[in-house]
Specification:
alpha/beta, Rossmann fold, 2 domains, 13 strands, elongated
């Protein structure tokens, strides 16, 4: 079917969202029926404003740089779209003879993808094919085994905590609390467990939003570890809530529907100082963890390319209203295959850590999680040496 392609990025960027863009563009360029490969420069709102760049005009050298460029080269957004906005997007799609639409993003973007699909159907654009490309560092998209973006974020947190653990082991005089992204899902914080080498380095404690945070248990755990080791490394998700379901830190700012909370890591470090009398400090890598190309996972990058290319293949084969996902194949060797998931199954459906990946006390992850996560971060982390255990 002759027509144009439209590519849209939505939500927070990752270290590999541009790799999916690369996969989609290079695949689309193979089809003679595609006249223009439009990229919306600035997210979903840019579609309404018709801010398009034809990626066919971009040189191959610049396209190759997408594989090693963090964030979104075409820009992204968190635009809140109203029903009339989806109708406006459908009209723009018709105006520019766009037949293939690809939304690359997380839960919110997959919701937008599904709504654009329905808006096109309502406008009589039954020949327009709309396909979602998954992207999220939080790994909270439903159905798919995992989503591109998570593997690199997991590698970053594991490598960073590994380095912090060496520092704390060398000078064991304080408790170090590292805060990980993931407000409602603890996948990133959990991935810090891959920092452990097996010779006593951290993280010593991991707290996830899937379990209520109990202050008394936290302080008891820290106290016992300080008495045993001297220095302690704690990893905590930014979204910890207490037994009452409320965030453990108070909101500090609110604008529109968005509420901003104080740092969980700073709060926990202050608890340790005030209630236990130990030195403590907080670390919050924040967006460094989603923007780092230095810690980009090669597996994550390659799968992001596959996701982009498979989305184009699906559309060219007549598929619409679907998202590309990954199914992990059985066997000792890590293998996945791309699958096509009905978009209705992933629209604003949040996937959190399953119970079998969290230990009984709620202060660590299980071996099952570590084995599941390990292949996603790519090559093994850099090994370190210590002579403190030789005596």
């Amino acid at each position: 079917m002759k027509g144009n392609v439209l590519l849209v990025h939505g939500g927070a960027p990752t270290a590999v969202i541009n790799a999916s863009l690369y996969g989609a563009v290079t695949e689309a360029k193979k089809y003679a029926e595609v006249d223009h490969i439009y990229a919306a420069i600035g997210g979903s709102g840019a579609v309404i404003r018709e801010q398009f760049l034809d990626m066919k005009t971009v040189s191959d050298d610049r396209l190759e740089l997408l594989l090693s460029t963090p964030a979104s080269a075409i820009g992204t957004s968190r635009d809140h779209l109203e029903p009339e906005d989806y109708e406006a997007i459908a009209r723009v799609i018709r105006k520019h003879d766009i037949k293939y639409v690809f939304f690359n993003g997380g839960n919110g973007s997959m919701d937008a993808c599904g709504k654009v699909y329905k808006a096109c159907q309502a406008l009589g654009l039954t020949d327009v094919r709309v396909v979602g490309i998954p992207k999220t560092i939080d790994n909270d998209i439903a159905v798919t085994d995992h989503a591109p973006g998570f593997g690199s974020a997991a590698r970053y947190i594991a490598a960073t905590v590994s380095e912090v653990s060496q520092d704390v082991r060398a000078l064991p005089i304080h408790v170090s609390v590292v805060e990980a992204m993931g407000r409602n899902a603890g996948w990133i914080a959990a991935a810090s467990a891959l920092a452990r080498s097996g010779d006593g380095d951290g993280p010593d404690l991991i707290y996830l939003p899937e379990r209520p945070f109990i202050e008394e248990e936290f302080l008891a755990d820290v106290k016992a570890l300080v008495e045993k080791k001297g220095g302690v490394v704690v990893v905590a998700s930014e979204g910890l809530t207490g037994p009452d379901g409320q965030p453990i830190v108070e909101p500090i700012f609110q604008v529109g529907r968005a509420t901003y909370y104080g740092d969980v890591s700073a709060h926990l470090a202050n608890l340790v100082i005030k209630k236990l009398g130990y030195k403590a400090r907080s670390e919050k890598p924040g967006i460094c963890g989603r923007a780092s190309i230095a810690f980009q996972s090669s597996v994550d990058r390659d799968e992001a390319v596959i996701a982009g290319a498979e989305a184009v293949k699906a559309a060219m084969e007549g598929q619409t209203g679907v998202m590309i996902g990954f199914e992990r194949l059985p066997g000792a060797e890590y293998k996945v295959k791309p699958i096509r998931i009905p978009i209705e199954q992933v629209m604003l459906t949040e996937r959190t850590m399953p119970a079998e990946f969290i230990n009984e006390r709620g202060n660590d992850v299980t071996d099952a999680f570590v084995e599941w996560c390990r292949p996603l971060i790519g090559e093994p982390l850099r090994p370190f040496v210590t002579f403190k255990n030789d005596l």
